[in-house]
Design brief:
It is built from 7 helices and 7 strands, in the order βαβαβαβαβββααα. The protein is α/β, with parallel strands linked by helices and 185 residues long. Helix 6 runs antiparallel to helix 7.
């Protein structure tokens, strides 16, 4: 697996499913600023209907629907429907994640902890999402909320160093010294 962070404000996302896991994924996408989300559900729970609003289509997507997206998430569906959707996604070049079915996934969503622009992720490559979540909670206890301000402070300082002509090697040395003098790590 190769870790990346996707800007879902720029990419079209398809979300397919009927139940609680689909609703949770939609809330996460909305909270993360995904702006182009289309939801497909043959039998959506009422809470999913409410959260999806006019983004909801009450049928499963076809290959053209999937092709219109860069990313597809699938949850709460029977194995055969999930397999069919994953196959369609791969055929049209859309990356896919089928919740809790590692064989159908092109990527996994890591457990993550966010402090402002600082994001720490933990992944078990789908082997044990629960373990990843527990490790994330342990990291949250160590990386207190003030890390958001620390990163903002360091980013402003880094911009000043860059403006004064610091090259990459000097930026590395200055950053390490800045962190060490403050005892952050």
């Amino acid at each position: 697996m190769f870790p990346i962070n996707l800007d879902l404000a720029r990419l079209a996302v398809v979300l397919v499913g009927d139940g609680r896991a689909t609703l949770n994924r939609l809330k996460q996408l909305d909270d993360d600023g995904a702006t182009h989300v289309t939801v497909y559900s043959e039998n959506p729970e009422s809470a999913l209907v409410d959260q999806a609003g006019d983004r909801l289509h009450r049928y499963l997507p076809n290959s053209a629907d999937i092709n219109a997206a860069a990313v597809m998430f699938v949850a709460d569906l029977a194995a055969e429907k999930s397999a069919e959707l994953a196959t369609m996604a791969r055929a049209v070049g859309t990356i896919v994640n089928v919740e809790d079915v590692k064989d159908y996934c092109d990527f996994h969503s890591p457990a993550r902890m966010v402090r402002g622009d600082l994001m720490v992720t933990v992944s078990t490559n789908g082997a044990s999402p629960r373990l990843a979540g527990r490790i994330r909670r342990a990291i949250e206890n160590w990386l207190l909320p003030n890390w958001a301000e620390r990163l903002d402070e360091l980013a402003a300082q880094r911009a000043r160093w860059q403006a004064s002509g610091a090259d990459m090697q000097k930026l590395i040395r200055l950053t390490d010294d800045y962190i060490d003098r403050r005892g952050w790590l």
